Input
Amino acid sequence: MKISLHSVSYSGFFYRGDPLSIEDMIRKLSEIGYDGLELMAKRPHANPMDLDEKARKEIRELADSHNIELANLAAYNDFSGPDSFKRELNLLYIYEVIKMARDLGIKTVRVFAAGMGAVDQNVSYWKHWELCREGLIEAAKWAEDYGVTLALQNHPPVMDSFKDVLDMIDEVGRESLKACIDPELLVRSGDINPFSERLYDDLLEIYSKFKDLLVFIHVGDSTIKSKRAVWLPGGGGVFTAQKVEREVLGKGTFGKIAESFVKVLKQIGYDGFLSYEICSPRYVKHALVSFETVDTEVRDGLKYLKQLVSKV
Output
């Protein structure tokens, strides 16, 4: 297995400080010892509008010269909802991302079904599913045309379980649509229980279903810090909800499942990338962490993953 870093980690979204450029990340990851870099297909990194043919060629050459594989292009598409023009814009976006992947020599593009936020509640779940399937069918055809593989992530909404990913891949029916099944999302969806005595067996059962479909995996960590009060609008009352916060890799939920997870990947013969992502904020004493803290996490995360893969 190879280890990459998702460029969202250095996007400036989740720490106090400026984003790093693609070029600076390539140099940094080469110096640290990562095998690859996963590029976020939006600003401030790899938005197709911002990278012309010359820029794409230069990025590819720089990565090659530093022995950094461009591991994946992470798209942020959303094919759900009643607005047909919005879906057409998302189709145009994913088409340009697929072309950019070809130009950069990237083999896989991570795709969502319905983005990362809430879907329109005026539309039924089944209609959202149908619209997402239609979008993925078009995207998968373009992927075949450009020699790229799409990796559908088990990320809600609509993809609320690994089972939904399996069903969607089957219904789309294209060889270019494969899977990105992230272990932390298996926990959040309730597909696995990190405290169960059956943890290894459950992981093996799930990942065995994707043995011929699994082309990319993200890893990150989080923990339930406390409960928080959520006030309902219009004086509707208050209820408590779990508060999930990002954690240093290995110190939270992922740390509890990590050895079983890697053991399962070796069991099914997965030899692709594990892509470490810092994709949500972390606070220390109620202050967002600094760039320097995230930079340390990036370095320590690589050490943790290398040790984990080697010892299991």
